[in-house]
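Whiteboard transcription, Tuesday session. T.W. wrote the C-alpha cells on the left side:
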C-alpha cells in the first residue's frame, strides 16, 4: 500500500507539470512539420513513416524521463522530504519502487499521447498519388517496443536523480542514451543499455520477449543502484 501511495503522489507530481503536455504537442507538431516539408518520406512508403513515428515516441520518452524524473529523488533529499519519509514506517524499497512506478506511469502517458498524435499525423498525411490515408498498423507494435525502453529510461532517471544534481542528471541521462547506441557492438555496449534496439523496425528488431527481459534486467540494475546510493551514502541536504 505504501508503494502505491508514493507512486500515486509521484504520478500527480509529474502530470501536473505543463511540460508533460507542452512537450507532447511540440513533438507531434515537429512530426507534422517534417511531414509537410518532406513529403518524399511518405511517398517512399510506410517504413520511413514508421521510423519517423518510432523516433518521435522515443524522443518523447527521453524528454519525459530527463525533465520529469531526474529531479524526483534529488528534490526530496534537498527539501528534507526524504528524511521525513524515512522517519515514518516506510522502508527504502517501497520508496524507490513508488518513485519509479509513478514516473513510469507519467512517462507512458506522455508516450501514449505522442503516439496518438503521430498516428493522427500519418493518417492525415497520406501518400502522394494514392487515395486514402497512410495509417501504418506496424506503428502499434513499434510503440509497444518503445514502451519497454521507457522502463529503462524511467529507472535510469531515478538512479541519476539519486546520484547527481538536478542540473547534471538530465545531461547524464542524455549521454547514457547516446553512448549506449554509439558503443553498440563494442565492449562498452555490453554494459550500457542499447536503446536503439527498441527503435528498430519490426523486421530488424529482436523478439519482443527478448526485449522485455532486456528492459527488466536494466531496470532492476538501475533501481538497485538507486537503493545502494540511498543506503550507503548520507542524503545531501540543500545548501542554505
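and on the right, the sequence the group agreed on:
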Amino acid at each position: 500500500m505504501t508503494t502505491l501511495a508514493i507512486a500515486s503522489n509521484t504520478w500527480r507530481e509529474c502530470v501536473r507539470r505543463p511540460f508533460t503536455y507542452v512537450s507532447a504537442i511540440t513533438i507531434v507538431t515537429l512530426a507534422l512539420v517534417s511531414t509537410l516539408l518532406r513529403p518524399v518520406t511518405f511517398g517512399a512508403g510506410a517504413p520511413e513513416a514508421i521510423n519517423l513515428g518510432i523516433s518521435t515516441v522515443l524522443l518523447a520518452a527521453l524528454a519525459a524521463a530527463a525533465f520529469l524524473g531526474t529531479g524526483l529523488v534529488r528534490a526530496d533529499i534537498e527539501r528534507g522530504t526524504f528524511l521525513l519519509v524515512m522517519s515514518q514506517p516506510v522502508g527504502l524499497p517501497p520508496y524507490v519502487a513508488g518513485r519509479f512506478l509513478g514516473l513510469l506511469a507519467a512517462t507512458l502517458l506522455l508516450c501514449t499521447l505522442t503516439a496518438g498524435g503521430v498516428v493522427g499525423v500519418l493518417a492525415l498525411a497520406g501518400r502522394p498519388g494514392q487515395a486514402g490515408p497512410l495509417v501504418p498498423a506496424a506503428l502499434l507494435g513499434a510503440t509497444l517496443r518503445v514502451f519497454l525502453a521507457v522502463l529503462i529510461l524511467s529507472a535510469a532517471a531515478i538512479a541519476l536523480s539519486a546520484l547527481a544534481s538536478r542540473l547534471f542528471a538530465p545531461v547524464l541521462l542524455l549521454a547514457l542514451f547516446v553512448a549506449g547506441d554509439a558503443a553498440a557492438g563494442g565492449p562498452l555496449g555490453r554494459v550500457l543499455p542499447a536503446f536503439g534496439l527498441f527503435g528498430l523496425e519490426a523486421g530488424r528488431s529482436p523478439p519482443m520477449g527478448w526485449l522485455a527481459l532486456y528492459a527488466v534486467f536494466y531496470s532492476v540494475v538501475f533501481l538497485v543502484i538507486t537503493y545502494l546510493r540511498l543506503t550507503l551514502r548520507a542524503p545531501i541536504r540543500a545548501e542554505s
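Someone added at the bottom: Residues 2-232 form one domain.
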